[in-house]
Amino acid sequence: MPAVYPRRRFLAASPVAVMLLLVTATAGVSAPNPQDKQTRTAEQEKFFENEVRPLLVQHCVECHGPDDQSGELRLDRHDHFKRGGGSGPVVVPGDANASRLIRAIGYQDNDLQMPPDSKLPEEAIRVLSQWVRKGAYWPEEATETQPTVNLSPQEHIEAQRQSHWSYQPISPTEPPTIAELATRVGQDQLDAFGGEGMTTIDRFVLTRLADGGLAPNPRADRRTLIHRAYHTLLGLPPTYEQVEAFVADDQPDAFARLVDRLLDNPHYGERWARHWLDIARYGDTKGYLAGNMETRYPYAFTYRDYVIDAFNSDKPFDQFVIEQLAADQLDLADDARSALAAMGFLTVGRRFMNRQHDIIDDQIDVVTRGFLGMSVACARCHDHKYDAIPTADYYSLYGVFASSEEPSELPLLGEPQSSPEYEAFLKAKAEKQQEVDKWVEERRQGIEYELRSRVADYLVYIAKSLPQYSKEKVQPQGKRGALRLPATRRWQQYLVNANASPHPVWELLRQLAALPPDEFAATSATIFDQAATATEVTEGTESAYPIPQRLLDSLREAQPTSLHEAAQVFGDVLEAVYAQWIEARKADESLERLPDADDETLRQVLWSANAPTTLDTGQAIAHLDQAERGKYNQLLNGVNGVSVTHPGAPGRGMVMVDKPKPVEPVIFRRGVPGNRGDRVPRRFLQVLSHVDGGEPFQQGSGRLELARAIADPQNPLTARVIVNRVWQHQFGEGLVRTPSDFGIRGELPTHPELLDHLAAELIADDWSIKRLQRRIMLSATWQQSSDTRPAAIETDPENRLLWHMPRRRMEFEPLRDRLLSVAGRLDESVGGRSVMIHRDATRRALYAYIDREDLPGLLASFDLPSPDASQAKRAKTTVPQQALYLMNSGFAIEQAKALAARSEAAPESPPAGDSDDASNHSAAERIKRLYRLALARAPDPAELTVAIEFVTPESAATLDPWVQLAQVLLLSNEFAFVD
After folding, report:
1. Which pLDDT tens digit goes with each residue over 269-316?
2. Is 536 helix (H, G, I), strand (E, B) or coil?
3. What's the gap between Cα 854 and its chain centre?
4. pLDDT by residue (tens digit) across 452-491?
5. Three-state secondary structure call for residue 652
6. Taking each helix axis from N to C terminus, what angle separates 300-312 and 266-279, rounded to the nearest 10 degrees?
7. In Å, what is the CA distance from 832 to each residue of 261, 348, 415, 654?
8. How far apart are the C-alpha atoms of 686 and 167, rounded to whole Å?
9. DSSP per-residue letters across 401-458
């Protein structure tokens, strides 16, 4: 869905405009963010562990590993890889062409080709080449002398369970008392941070600040707080009137009441749903699929709507977890069936060309990273290199998801209500379905005609495998061209199984197929003579099976010397009878049988209900060739398209259900499905076995048991992980700065006691996310100003001790929504189908249609994460495309025009404290209105003076100066940043 933006010349940059921009803008370009490097490193590690290491393990380690180091080269560990082999390093990071490893696997040199017995698949070469071009990142590893390397897998698991912080029980501790803090930091600093009313959060934070020799920032002013609160909870700006009302409210609970109002606002769910959808790798399409197959998810939006509603209704987070994994197994009332939409968490990901092993790997990854902060997918090919996650744990979870499947028809989320839109939807869908049915019926008849007209080709082809059944996997070929593979399989099964094809014609063919090749000519002639007497000898018994004389005469005349030649005669006779039938029907359409009894008997051979030449609708679809299947998929896309786009289409849940028989998983050695190892039970992770006793799952697939183990209050990870995610989106960074990795290589929490305190309170508060939000936002820590102090920056440049509130640039979604909002064009309706993000789209950016194969460059430019994998943190880049979009895109200019037009109209009533007549259309008054609309404040005297000079006719550029002024405000840092 490419977004098209018209070319447009830059706005005229007069000196006054430049001056105005400088006056309007607050601070300059933001400093580089350390998070960018963390995000890139996490992406590099994921690519290495999921794509590169499995290839090295599968294809290289046998000869270049701990047991054998051919060429003095080891490729199983970072230190050995870096050192290289006897001839030195094997890669030049960033230069694949100069890397001996890439040249060897690409067979570019005759004297160095690896693996020596056969070249790697092209996809493997592409992955390794891409890895080297991107710098050949290989995560640092513990040294081999580390004591833990000699532990057994179970001992390793137990050692981490006892020692690693995130596996320990949540143990809330009491922070220092107010009196103790007063002694440490002094009463003045204590009073500035809340004094006797200080929250528990503030006591933990102030303690860490004191340990670091730092003081907190003072509280931000009220205008800053309301802007910060609106951005954090709604992702939308407050109006001028809302800001002024809050500033004028002198009640001590004014901010608490503001927070409560925002938490009750339906746009709250939209804002926080976007954060979760990054983790859930939300997309509206499946990714690349071949042959015109439907790539759209017609009902992906129902999962997004579920997440929005879950946050708005403050659904307990433990229930949120369970519904996303196993809503189909809950006893849902009729009015609660909308919870089935929650399972889109499992099913809305990329489909990897329908490779089931990769789909399941993606499900394991999103579940364990999203809820537990664990990278279990790294154990697909080998035990986790760092964490206590053996390969057996991966395949235990693999068994859970392999025992689940998507039903052929997704369930409705509620009973559709009769309405004009719904009736129109049913009609539109029926019309599209009729097109499919008509085309399929035409092809069914056409394929039947083809199969009967070419029966000789099929019988000759199958003669090579009779009397056994051989399942071909390649495209079969006949004398007159390609054969249909499903048809050859049906013919083989049909002829091998005497019960399926008892007709004497086929009994005769089977008798011939049983003859030894060197006796075929002599023995077949005897069989034909016996058949001519209308008696067939079968296993020493006699029974009357008349063979049509026409077939016998042809066989005796041809005197076949092989089964191949005999099959050709059978086919020629049947094809001749079929051609005779076609001609007879042309002369008399009412004809029901051929006049000659022998001919009619042969015709019935091709017309029997279970003959391979007779197809029902499903069989016809199975017989479609590649071109026909492309057309069929295209027609089906039309049916699905109605469900995707029609406003009357009812929602359906993208559920999974248990298979009738659960899969008993086995370990795939090195991740190769054909290389099977030990059986493992479907169960929870062993390092967390104390949560559910470590017993195998017994209820179907085990998804519900897995969900309950994850959501169990005794699970030390789930509450910590979600508390950290909420903190991350409140402060820009989490208390743990690797939010989806709480393992050995993840960062330690900056405030471990605070994290456990909030996790324990979340559980005690019935897993209420809104109460957690409120608790954080009412703290003095959250309400600090974003001002920086040189001495504090020198001590704590990354603000790990929380001495100030970070200043943050808006993500793409709230920035775009803000542009629409101040222009008065934002569609504030909540929920519904996705829309294409183009210049005329006015819905919130949350509802952008995410096409995995055609992600708009606009979204990528503004750091929207890839929907192909779970993403906990967004990169924060500063690239020219971002500025150019805001300066030059048709969308941004349209909003500037709309904003300028809004400023021209007088408000309905004068703003509070404004003594001027609201109907005064002077330039000064209009500038004030423009500032109030764009920035929710009045201009200061200097800004007003410069703006008046800019819009006066004498200094105005050829373009409308009011539109230019509006765009300057929309381009300002004040508009795009939150203090």
Report:
1. 999 999 999 999 999 999 977 667 788 899 999 999 999 999 999 999
2. strand
3. 14
4. 999 999 999 988 766 555 566 667 888 888 999 999 899 8
5. strand
6. 120
7. 24, 16, 17, 15
8. 11
9. HHTEE--SSPPBSSPPPP-HHHHHHHHHHHHHHHHHHHHHHHHHHHHHHHHHHTHHHH
